[in-house]
Amino acid sequence: MILVLVFATCNMYANVNLLPSLGDGVAENIFQDVIITGTITDKNGAPLPGANVLAKGTSVGVVSNFDGDYTIKVPDGVTTLVVSFIGFADQEININGRTEINITLLESAEGLNEVVVTALGIKRSKRSLAYSITKIDGDDFTETRETNIANGLAGKVAGVSVTKPASGPGGASRVIIRGNSSLTGNNQPLYVVDGIPIDNTNRGTAGEWGGSDGGDGIGNLNPDDIETMSVLKGNSAAALYGSLASNGVILITTKKGKTNQGLQVEINSNYVFEEAINHLDPQTEYGHGLLGQKPTTQTEAWDAGEFSWGAKLDGSSVIQFDGVSRPYSYSGDNFDKFYRTGSTFTNTIALSGGAERLGYRFSASNMENESVMPNSGMKRQTFSMNMHGSALDDKLSFQTSAQYIFQNVRNRPQLADSPYNAHYSVWQLPVTINVLDLRGDPDRLGANPEDATDLYGSTMGQKGYELLPTSSIWFQNPYWAAYQQTNNIGKNRILASASLQYEINDWAYVKARGGVDQFDRITEDVFPTGTGHNLTGGMNQGQLKYKQSNFDVMVGSSHEFDNGIAYDFLAGANKMRLQENGTYAYGNNFALPFFYSIANGINNGGSSSFAKLGSHSVYGQAEISYKNWLFLTGSARNDWFSVLDGRDIFYPSVGVSAVLSDVLKLPEAINYAKVRTSWAQVGGVGDINAYSLNQTYSLGRAQLGIPRGAITSGSVRNANLNPLLVTELELGFNLQFFNNRLGVDFSYYDKKTEDDILSAGISYTSGYSSTIVNIGELSNKGVELLLTGTPVMTDNFKWDVSFNMGYNKSEVVSLVDPENDEERFNIGLSRARHAWVTHIEGMPFGQITGSVYLRDSNGEIALDANGLPQVDTDAGTVAFGTGVHPFNAGLQNSFRYKDWRLSFLIDMRDGAVGHSGTNQQLYRRGVHKNTLVGRETGIGGRPASEIRNYYTKIFNDIAEEFIYDAGFIKLRELSLGYNVPSKFLEKTFIRKASISAVGRNLWLIHSNVDNIDPESSYNAGNAQGLDFFAMPQSTSFGFNVNLTF
């Protein structure tokens, strides 16, 4: 509606020429053999090679080159150029005496007949599709870039929710399409690169007791190598992938060289700064201490080092944890002192070109990141190759691509629980303690610069051991956590694919394609000597070797008959094999302090793991069309799974689309109208691993020479387990108005998951505690809307706008534990252990649940005899709302004036709640501003000196206090760019040049929570909505330079 109103007021200016027309007499004197040059692009600025430029009224014309550039010699008397390109609306351009004219073409209604890449790499006409598909150009990921390209989808695709956990460099991304399809299994989409499925497992995540984000697979890819990314949202779109596609599919096509093109060199450099966003707003009126008193001895200061329950700040000299007396006053913002300015520097060089029947592209890229977290960062080097060509009079064609990726992440920050989590300590320090005073030994940051055994004890206080700001060994020195507790993850990855296609005749072909995703992942964690809670230290090392291979063979046929009926048929088979081998070693209690080696551990050992699984599949798809306006499509796939003892499942789909504007007389304003509907089933095996249905045992130490074995799993195997099944109905329409100046794309879907795979409790009399069964049922219903428009377009100025939104209503339909018949299922627990993420029958996915205040008849908090708030035990565990945003929207605007461009993206989410463990801890420590209440007067008749007990009671027992509305509005992206005009490059070897200033996460426009970012999260799993001292979100700004030679 917003765009319609804009058009109602702006359409009258749509084709206005800003320069006045010249009379015929003037034109006769000017237009004599005038040479005009320029560039022809689409609305996204991509060049259009092969566009026709004609001097109107003559036969003089030229064709734009690979870069969209053209040069035409205009005959005497011609005042207009006519520009045309297949799939785009023709334009007539008044010359008006100009010698350089850059032209932007818009898609025509026929442009919706363009060929798009769909499931299995099948190329289909866009107008024939009975489902929703969204294509994003690679440029959207390279200008305002993220180190993980999946995060670049945020706010850009209707029905797609993107969560970026605050987990540091190389962290994973959570992408959900049309809601969660499984209650406990993987809900992220399948990623396919150049036709080959890739691994996207998040190998390491933080939970209730801490941990770090091990990263995912999609985060390894180089954005500069991506040509397009297509999001297949519905089951019908993804059904040909069968069991892999229950959560949707994201197709990634990498850049290729062009045939008949000379050598082209492209260089892209991107440099951005990062700053941690400081939402922390602590109370600055009271300092460290207990019972409202300042510490008077070093021991008292050490015992109170983590608490801000001291006296009011007065500037007097007060002893601190290290025995030094300092002013009892606000020491400054510890947040800004601890976090640093981060940076990411990316350089990519690409060589491309081709001969008559061969195209090639080679690229090399280097990315170096320094995190806002001290002593943390990552490096990634990528080398890629892509070749395609043909032979035998174009009957035989081939395509091959390969990428080698090396990625190293050093010191991924620890998240959630306190051990090794620097954020936990920095955020809770009393305002009288300067975090810089915790640096300690400059040669060993965070360590005691000298012996302090008289305070800490004979062992703990040694020089070089952790400098503790408090007597609690779990409240770690943040510099020790950042610089001494180290970890490293290195990954060597190869992605490769090759295909060969032979055209049997004009209507039939056969194709074979194979590919592999293979990597080695090496990890090391060092727990240093002298750590407060682990004085003797230890370390872990591990190596994981992974390989997934896919091989497809297909046969296809297509033909159009004279009566307007046409068909397109495909049949094929797939073989998938996956293998993992892991080796792990540990060494604890170092014999020699500060010498970090597995062999130096007094207690050491190791383990290994092995898994091998596979599947066989057959599939087919057929499309019948009538006069290119009515389309009927059906597909089917059958999968056989090794993990289910060879059991199989069949996935059908059917869809109908009709381009009504081709056969009905519609109002003049509507130039394109299409309706579509589809129904499909897909499924999967959830998180079932290679041996979930096999009874396994472990070997123990031999006794009297006889090896011992034991069944150590508490879960009994279920030989009757079946794949889960996801059924979806989709309805939609596409409309284009005002000669494609306004577009509407609407979808409604109804998706139901049955036989979800869950772990359920069983009677202990069986000898086991649980089994895996098909008991879950989940529903997702929603709408998606995409509005696109060009309110203003003149020769020199153009304004494009798009608005997308998605609303998903989820419901846990069935969730019955066969042992206790409970209609609840906990999937996550907060660190304070009084708030959960829970599935509840009849309610939306992933409810945040917990305890609430007992209140009197007036709604006031009821206090007990000790003046402390009480829990409403009768209410039990209350559901506060879902931790998953049901509403997601994005508003994108792009402006072009001559060679300048400006764009911005606003990201909006609503409908979810969260539980802030961060604010909960700030209550406990006396850092939160709300804890100022009662400092002087007390609460509930109790003296002010006991105020800590009041807020500690809330910390311990009341989840309600820390529930927040997780909705927000953010300025997600902003860029200002300039394309250097070709006339300035004529005497150089540079063919094209552009520069842009870019920024991400620049403004939190609206938020409902204090001290944290509303997106704060420490993992990418299903238990969303829990916050506990994750990395702060960051804002980035920098520059991007692109040169073509």
Which class do the helix and strand fractions yield?
mainly beta
The CATH H-level homologous superfamily of the domain at 117-255: TonB-dependent receptor, plug domain
Computed CA radius of gyration, to the nearest angstrom: 32 Å
Percentage of residues in strands: over 45%
CATH architecture of the domain at 117-255: Beta Complex
Helix content range: under 10%
Mean pLDDT: 89
Instruction: Outline the biggest β-sheet.
Output: 22 strands, antiparallel, barrel
Termini gap: 45 Å
Which runs of at least 5 residues are low in confidence (pLDDT < 50)?
1-31
Q: What is the tally of beta strands?
A: 50
CATH class of the domain at 117-255: Mainly Beta
Molecular shape: globular
Helix count, DSSP H or I runs of 4 or more residues: 11
Subcellular location: Cell outer membrane
Pfam family, one: Plug
Keywords: Cell outer membrane, Membrane, Transmembrane, Transmembrane beta strand, Transport
Main location: membrane
